[in-house]
Amino acid sequence: MGRTAPARRASRRGFVARLLAAAPDALVVTGLGSAAYDVFAAGDRDRNFYLWGAMGGAAPVGLGLALAQPGQSVLVITGDGEQLMGIGSLGTIGAKRPRNLTIVVLDNGHFGETGMQRSHTSLGTDLVAVAKGFGIAHAFSTGSIDDCEDIAAGIRARQQTSFVQVFVEADEPPRVLPPRDGPFVKNRFRAALGLKPF
Amino acid sequence: MNPTPPPAPAWQEAVFKVLKRGGVRQIAYVPDAGHAHAIRSAIADPEIEDIVLTTEEEGVAIACGAWLGGQRAVLLMQSSGVGNCVNMLSLLQAADFPFLMLVTMRGEYAEFNPWQRPMGRATQAALELMGIHVLRADRADEVEEVVGAGLDAAFLAGDRVAVLLGQGLIGRKKWERD
User: Which tens digit of pLDDT belongs to each residue from A99-135?
Assistant: First the structure.
């Protein structure tokens, strides 16, 4: 039972910029590497939390945040390699199913940061089937930037946990580096939610 | 389907009391018999999210997400799970997150299973290598105080703390079923 290559692939920068423009209030957690650069390239925001390490941690950071802030839309934007390393977290999310959590995996089928080695999604893994198997019923894929508005409407509506696999081109747009100062990014994020220092 | 569990030891009740009193709103866990009461109580408490994990490192990230959103979380596991967390613990230092984990020990006292020994013996050193401050309770009557001290250090002083709950608290594991 082989998988066919996706019919279309989107530009990662274009997709992320258009998605965030349509969900301007979302709390965003990025995986390390290209996904963080893509989100930063779309415009730095106080409501962004960029990972620079902790590979596999983006989705569970998003889960803890979504449970803590049920009145906010939480959006995890990460890559296929980062999500694969934390693949079990989709099971943990599938068990809790917070209605305000959306996970977007920018899937270029490769480990972009380390020299474009093929990842499991180039070699047989179907992330949508994995997400559904873990209990995230609203899971789908796209390769079209024209789906951004519909995805953003779902993010804003906060009606169900969603998983979106976005087939993107395996290119390497110019690196634009978000701040690496973790305490700064964390405190800025919390301040944007009106949270005080301890 | 859900038989009434036997009454929990007082030290286990003390653990949950401290977490509840300390305003913990998310309890993430990989189960252990020593955490059975806290897990059961979290599931029953509408103010606390109980989060079962596929692997312990997820709980480190969840605790950081909870803090980003203004909530206190705690991570429960047994000592074998500490090894599963090591790289994810870097998130705590890199962004200076408050953090509390409670670890029931294996491999150190009347241990029947030699496979528990390597990680059990390495647990404290592994945590300390990753910058976690380690506290420890071995007697039932000190559990409440030590867990409370860990909670205060984490959420009042922003520290990263693990409280090890000695295997002697749990006692000998009964291997044969009646």
Answer: 999 999 999 999 988 999 999 999 999 999 999 999 9
Report which DSSP code applies to B102.
E
Within-domain flag for B3? no
Which of A27, A51, A63 has the highest number of chain B CBs within 10 A, making it the mutation to test binding with B?
A: A63
**A45 lies in some domain:** yes
Chain B residue numbers touching A98 (CB-CB < 8 A):
none
* pTM of this structure: 0.96
Number of domains in chain A: 1
Does B19 score more than 50 pLDDT?
yes
Q: Cβ B64–A61 below 8 Å, yes or no?
A: yes
β A27-30/A74-79 pair status: parallel
- Find tokens 């946990």 and name the residue: A161
The answer to whether residue B5 is domain-embedded is no
Q: Are A165 and A127 in contact (CB under 8 A)?
A: yes
Among candidates B101, B102, B67, B52, which has minimal Cα distance to A89?
B52
Angle, vertex CA B95, rays to CA A120 and CA A196, nearest 5: 130
Percentage of chain A beyond pLDDT 90 is 94
Closest CA to B101 of B49, B36, B29, B41: B29
ipTM of model: 0.97
The mean pLDDT of B55-78, rounded to a whole number, is 98
